């Protein structure tokens, strides 16, 4: 099963039969690392597992409805973005003066500094307009190319490029305001 492409695994996982569970498990193992990075970047590492679980539950329930008009990964990333938006909408937003403090310059634990940086990045991403946040997250954390992002978001490649440019500029400004130098 591991060697089968998504195009062959999806029908096996979508319909009851002897290979359903195994095919679905391969899809989960294959795509979870990328989806987890995407979710962790958008909602923070503490909520990423919950979002990922919601994504896969939604995929399992709705896989029969996937018509394969688009690539499976496009459909999957759209579900992941929707789950991230839902998780973000459910939490309160902090104003700029309550942004995470920069790490102490004498912090001995590099892992603590990295966790602090991830928290400030998640904070800044949450403040971007959704269309910019989605484009930046799909590109930088999801590893999708411009055409794939365009497919997930349902926009033209030129629109993706402009959203990425604006989103990156806004991130630089937000992160600089909380002590992160790009």
Automatic annotation (TrEMBL):
Classification via CDD domains: Sigma70_r4 (cd06171)
Signal peptide: none
Family in the record: Belongs to the sigma-70 factor family. ECF subfamily.
Pfam families in alphabetical order: Sigma70_r2 (PF04542), Sigma70_r4_2 (PF08281)
Domain of life: Bacteria
All copies of domain RNA polymerase sigma factor 70 region 4 type, residue ranges: 124-171
Gene Ontology biological process terms in this record: DNA-templated transcription initiation
InterPro entries referenced in this protein's UniProt entry, alphabetically: RNA_pol_sigma-70-like, RNA_pol_sigma-70_dom, RNA_pol_sigma70_r2, RNA_pol_sigma70_r4_t2, RNA_pol_sigma_r2, RNA_pol_sigma_r3/r4-like, WH-like_DNA-bd_sf
Keywords, alphabetical: DNA-binding, Sigma factor, Transcription, Transcription regulation
Listed Gene3D superfamilies: 1.10.1740.10, Winged helix-like DNA-binding domain superfamily/Winged helix DNA-binding domain (1.10.10.10)
Cited SUPFAM superfamilies: Sigma2 domain of RNA polymerase sigma factors, Sigma3 and sigma4 domains of RNA polymerase sigma factors
Organism: Deinococcus terrestris
Domain spans labelled RNA polymerase sigma-70 region: 27-89
One GO MF term attached to the UniProt entry: sigma factor activity
Official protein name in the record: Sigma-70 family RNA polymerase sigma factor
UniProt keyword Transcription, yes or no: yes
């Amino acid at each position: 099963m591991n060697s089968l492409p998504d195009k062959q695994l999806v029908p096996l996982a979508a319909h009851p039969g002897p290979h359903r569970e195994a095919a679905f498990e391969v899809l989960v193992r294959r795509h979870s690392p990328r989806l987890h990075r995407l979710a962790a970047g958008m909602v923070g590492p503490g909520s990423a597992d919950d979002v990922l679980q919601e994504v896969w539950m939604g995929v399992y329930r709705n896989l029969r409805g996937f018509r394969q008009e688009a690539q499976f990964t496009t459909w999957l990333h759209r579900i992941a973005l929707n789950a991230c938006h839902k998780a973000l909408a459910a939490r309160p937003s902090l104003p700029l003066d309550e942004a995470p403090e920069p790490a102490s310059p004498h912090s001995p634990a590099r892992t603590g500094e990295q966790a602090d940086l991830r928290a400030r990045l998640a904070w800044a991403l949450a403040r971007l307009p959704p269309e910019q946040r989605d484009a930046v997250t799909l590109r930088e954390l999801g590893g999708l190319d411009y055409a794939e992002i365009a497919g997930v978001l349902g926009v033209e490649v030129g629109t993706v490029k402009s959203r990425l440019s604006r989103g990156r500029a806004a991130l630089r400004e937000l992160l600089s305001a909380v002590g992160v130098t790009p």
